[in-house]
Amino acid sequence: MSGRPLDVLEASLGERVSVRLKSGDEYVGDLAGYDQHMNLVLEDVAIPIDGGVEEEAPVEDTTIIRGDNVVSITP
Amino acid sequence: MSGRPLDVLEASLGERVSVRLKSGDEYVGDLAGYDQHMNLVLEDVAIPIDGGVEEEAPVEDTTIIRGDNVVSITP
Amino acid sequence: MSGRPLDVLEASLGERVSVRLKSGDEYVGDLAGYDQHMNLVLEDVAIPIDGGVEEEAPVEDTTIIRGDNVVSITP
Amino acid sequence: MSGRPLDVLEASLGERVSVRLKSGDEYVGDLAGYDQHMNLVLEDVAIPIDGGVEEEAPVEDTTIIRGDNVVSITP
Amino acid sequence: MSGRPLDVLEASLGERVSVRLKSGDEYVGDLAGYDQHMNLVLEDVAIPIDGGVEEEAPVEDTTIIRGDNVVSITP
Amino acid sequence: MSGRPLDVLEASLGERVSVRLKSGDEYVGDLAGYDQHMNLVLEDVAIPIDGGVEEEAPVEDTTIIRGDNVVSITP
Amino acid sequence: MSGRPLDVLEASLGERVSVRLKSGDEYVGDLAGYDQHMNLVLEDVAIPIDGGVEEEAPVEDTTIIRGDNVVSITP
Q1: Min distance G6 CA to chain F CA atoms (Å)
Q2: Quick check: F41 contacting G, CB < 8 Å?
Q3: Measured between CB atoms, does E38 come within 8 Å of chain F?
Q4: pLDDT recorded at residue F51
Q5: Start and end of every Sm domain (chains A, B, C, D, E, F, G) (predicted)?
């Protein structure tokens, strides 16, 4: 199980991650925390414009995402 | 796991938070309580008008939200 | 966690509460019981007319609501 | 938690109950059994005609309903 | 809890049962086994024609149905 | 509980099974493994053409199916 | 239970796998990790073009997929 999912999250703390939700929404933010349900804490959150990662519309300082909404997390 | 999701909720007690639900509805209120399922207690609850946080239509004094409806919580 | 969701339910026993379900339905009734899943027992249940709480169409004496249908409970 | 949901079910054994499902279907029958998941056993089951409880189309002698389909139970 | 759901299933072993699924599909077969999740084993399985129980189109010798698909089981 | 669902799966190891998913998709393959969640391992997997079991379009050597997608398994 | 699903995942570490999600999306990547929920870590992730495995559009270096989105994994 080398590189378990939660280990990768732990290693990504402080890094910018992209989170895709089941609703189709995407959040980009600095990963500030998580738990075993993949509940996430993001900081300096932005929503990508036109699916691009270069331009971002700032949204909120801190956002908690409930894990059961998550499809994928890309550090 | 610095800054776990429930720790951020604990630190947000008494603060105004915005809660997005899977239905697309949004609640804004003072966070008065929560539990490990992210069931929430909000007070002085309002629903943002036109998605804006400035103007709010007052709704209810206290509202319990069942956690499995929650997408995100923004303190 | 001051004012946990289940504590607010406990304090609301005997009071009239409004319960919104995921189906969009709303029940108004006296909260007669609950459990840790937010399964609820309502008495003197009514369904609000036109979303108003003043006028109510009486429905049933007692109704058990399974908790996983609940979006929010407003005492 | 006076009048917990399962206590109300226990007190309703042998009584005629109306069960609403997430599919919108409704069953009326004598409550012959249940368990902690709100799985139910109904006997002399009927489906209300035009949503009325007076006229009923008989359906089956005994029906087991899996609890996760249940919205509400009205004794 | 007299006549709990799983007791009724136990008493129905070897009998012909009708199983309604959340998809709307219906299976008729001899109940050969079950477990606590209401996973079922049916034998001599048929699908009712026009919703009738008299005429049946034979389908399979043995079918395992995962319990979370089940709405109701009628012995 | 004679002939429990997992016992039938155990007895079907190495046999060709047909698996119907909630999406409506169907997989046919040799059952190479399973676990208590009904997660499955199929080998020499094919997808039936026109719902028939005679003609099959080969798809993959080995496929793991997550159990919560499964409707039924027919050995 | 020879060849349990998680054993097949363990044996597939480092190999290229194709993951189909409930949304219909498909990811192809090197399996770098997993856990008992079938949460997955993929590296050198690509999305197949026109459903083909030959041509791939590169997407991300590393992606964590939450297990409850997974339909099937093909090593």
Answers
A1: 9
A2: yes
A3: no
A4: 52
A5: 4-75
